[in-house]
Amino acid sequence: MLLYFWQYLYSNYFRFWLKWFLRQIHGKCELQRICAESKDGAYRTHRIEYSLEHSKNKVLSKINLRICLLQISGYKKLFIEVEDVRKRPYDSDNPEHEWQLLELWDLLMPHEKLKSRITKQWGDIGFQGDDPKTDFRGMGILGLANLLYFSRHYTEESRTILSHSNHPKLGYSYAIVGINLTEMAYSLLKSGALKSHF
């Protein structure tokens, strides 16, 4: 009973004055002190949670910190995963990479078979040389993953865009533009510009 009474007094009266006093001495708020003084781990997390739950600040009591923290960690996790895929180079000795590249061809050019793995036919879907692996240098396997995703999930649209890319005057290299769009999206993700979209 005495313990509950002490907790009530501390959380409703003494804690406020203790926090005020420590802020005057250290020049930092409670959260800054906890982060600076506590080691990583459960103890620090528990102290931060306690501080936020018992704050008299009306703004802190209204926000859902859990959702904010999930968004922050989710964005960072997404970037780490994307960066991991981007750093992985296209490997012609990797059967999965080769299968994905051939699937891309089949999705975009269903009525035309490749004569060989290294061929000028790759230019028909917008690669620069006889071997598409050289075009994936900057974005790694991420460039192929994006081209393949678009072709799998938007097959008709991707074929229409490929058809437009072959226009005699206004044409462009479909695959190269796709890889460049991947690089643009990656740069926006890396800079944090996409945070407002998640």
From TrEMBL:
It comes from the Eukaryota. InterPro entries: ELMO_dom (IPR006816), ELMO_domain-containing (IPR050868). One of its GO terms (cellular component) is membrane. Residues 96-198 form the ELMO domain. GO terms for molecular function: GTPase activator activity. PROSITE patterns: ELMO. PANTHER family: ELMO DOMAIN-CONTAINING PROTEIN 2, ENGULFMENT AND CELL MOTILITY. This is ELMO domain-containing protein.
